Amino acid sequence: MVVFDLDRTIWDHEDISATTPPYRALDASRIADSGGTIVTLRSGVRELLGWLLERGALLAVVSWNVEWIAVEALKSFGIHSYFSFLIIEFHPRKDRMFEKLFRASGLGPKNAIYIDDDEGMVRLVKKRYPEIHTILYLRDARSMGELRRLLESLL
Ligand SMILES: [Mg+2]
Questions:
Q1: What are the backbone dihedrals phi and psi of residue 87, each rounded to the nearest 5 degrees, phi first?
Q2: CA of 24 to the centre of ligand 1 (A)
Q3: Sign (positive/negative) of CA torsion 21, 85, 8, 75?
Q4: How far does the centroid of ligand 1 lie from the alpha carbon of residue 53, in Å?
Q5: CB atoms within 10 A of CB 152
Q6: What was the pLDDT predicted at 155?
Q7: CB-facing half-sphere around the CA of 149: CA atoms within 13 A
Q8: How far is the CA of 108 from the centre of ligand 1 (A)?
Q9: Which pLDDT tens digit goes with each residue over 61-78?
Q10: Cα-to-centroid distance, 99 and ligand 1 (Å)
Q11: What residue ranges do the domains of the chain occupy?
Q12: In the chain, at which end, N or C, are there fewer CB atoms within 10 A of the end residue's CB?
C-alpha cells in the first residue's frame, strides 16, 4: 500500500482547506477555486498513480485537511477514484489517522510506504510505526519521476 500526503505532495498548494470550492478545471493539471486561487497537480502524479495500480499497489491518502474540501479537489483533478482509502481529518495527529488506515485496510506498517513533504509528520508516524517505509517528498525524491524510481526499488 502506498500512502500519500496531499498538500505540497500531490499538488503544489500548501493548504487546500484554505481554498473555497467549487473548483473549475483550467487544464489537465490546474484547478481554480471560487476566488481564483490556482492549485496545480504535481507533474506526473496521474501517471505515477496509474503505474502503481498496474503494479497491484493499493493507494491511500492520509491528510490533515477539511475532508470535503480535499475530496472536492481530488475529484476536480479526476484522481479521486485511484485511492482505495481516504483518511482526511482536520488535526495534525497522522499517527492516529494511520491507526484508522491500518484498521480499515487490514494491512500493517510492514506493507506500507508513506510519502509526505512534512518531516515532523514523517517522524511522528515513524515513531508510532517504526516498520513503515517513509519517503520525505522534496528531499528523498524531488519529483514524481524520482519518486517512481525510488518506489520501483521498493515494490
Ligand atoms: Mg504536505
A1: -110, 100
A2: 22
A3: negative
A4: 22
A5: 10
A6: 86
A7: 6
A8: 22
A9: 999 999 999 999 999 999
A10: 19
A11: 2-152
A12: C
Instruction: Say how many Å lie between the CA of residue 137 and the centre of ligand 1.
Output: 9
Cell numbers linked to 23: 473548483
For domain 2-152, give the fold. Rossmann fold (3.40.50)
Ligand 1 mean position, distance from CA 33 (Å):
19
Phi-psi region of 63 (alpha: psi -120 to 50; beta: other; left: phi over 0): beta
Q: How far is the CA of 78 from the centre of ligand 1 (A)?
A: 20
**Mean per-residue pLDDT, 115-141:** 98
Q: Give the containing element (helix H, strand E) for 61.
A: strand 59-64
| Cα(139)–Cα(154) distance, integer angstroms | 17
Distance from Cα 9 to the centre of ligand 1, integer Å: 6
Residue 30: what residue type? Answer: R
The label of the residue with cell 513503515 reads 132
CB-CB neighbours of 103 under 10 Å: 9
Are 109 and 132 contacting, i.e. CB atoms less than 8 angstroms apart?
A: yes
pLDDT higher than threshold 90 for residue 9 = yes
Asked if 87 and 61 touch (Cβ cutoff 8 Å), the reply is: yes
